[in-house]
Request: fold
Amino acid sequence: MTTETHPETSQPKKEQLFADLRNRLLSLSEQETLMASDWLLSGLPFHTVAKMIESEFGFLPNVQQLAEFWDEKCRSGLVARRGRAASAAEDIVQHAKRWPEYFTEAAIDALRQRSFELLIAPKLDTKAVKELLNLLLKVQSQHLEERKLALHEKQLLEKAQRAEAIAKDTTLTPEERERRMKEIFGL
Reply:
């Protein structure tokens, strides 16, 4: 038995196969679409994503099909991702603005830009994120230390004022003055 191939019938079969693969790619489940979108949005090359799709979903799309998938499924995801990154960067900036004595406007702008870049990057630079968070934590820690120092100074000033009032009180005996001074300073 011989099989004949006719050029006029092989072309429509190819086109049908292409359309079937395209439809299959565009009709992935929501979870599968998210997976494929994440792969593309992470910056992986199309050929790598195609092999991942073949491995995970059992068919191998070509570059044109992936480009169409990108246009229809990923472009809006990229816009949303950038929006979330901008919002998160602004949250970081608002956190930093709580300490204007540590951040100039230029520093705030640089912080906003760097935060956005880190959040939008296809691959998370954990070292840079750690450095950024450590900077904010150090500023917060320094601010808390300064607040503690200011509170301590206020308490010492209040104790000094009370001690001065006791020292000027002529109705107290020297022993009574000494006892009250020790009470004030916790001795």
